[in-house]
Amino acid sequence: MNFYIFRTLTEVREITDKWLVEYNEERHHESLGDLAPCVFLAQHYDRMDSNNCWH
């Protein structure tokens, strides 16, 4: 989040929510193999399901 002057608590919440969506769903993270966290997590669960012998 860059420099921003908030006027109301509602504005803080709205902008923070948008930032969290961008950070967790859109922004690629080098530490996760240049994937967005939600994509990385989905792939992780897919791998776990395919390795589960109780299917």
From TrEMBL:
Q: Pinpoint the Integrase catalytic domain residues.
A: 4-37
Record-linked InterPro entries:
Integrase_cat-core
Please give the superkingdom of this protein's source: Bacteria
Biological process (GO) annotations held by this record are: DNA integration
Q: Which Pfam families does the entry link to?
A: rve_3
* Name under which the protein is recorded: Integrase catalytic domain-containing protein
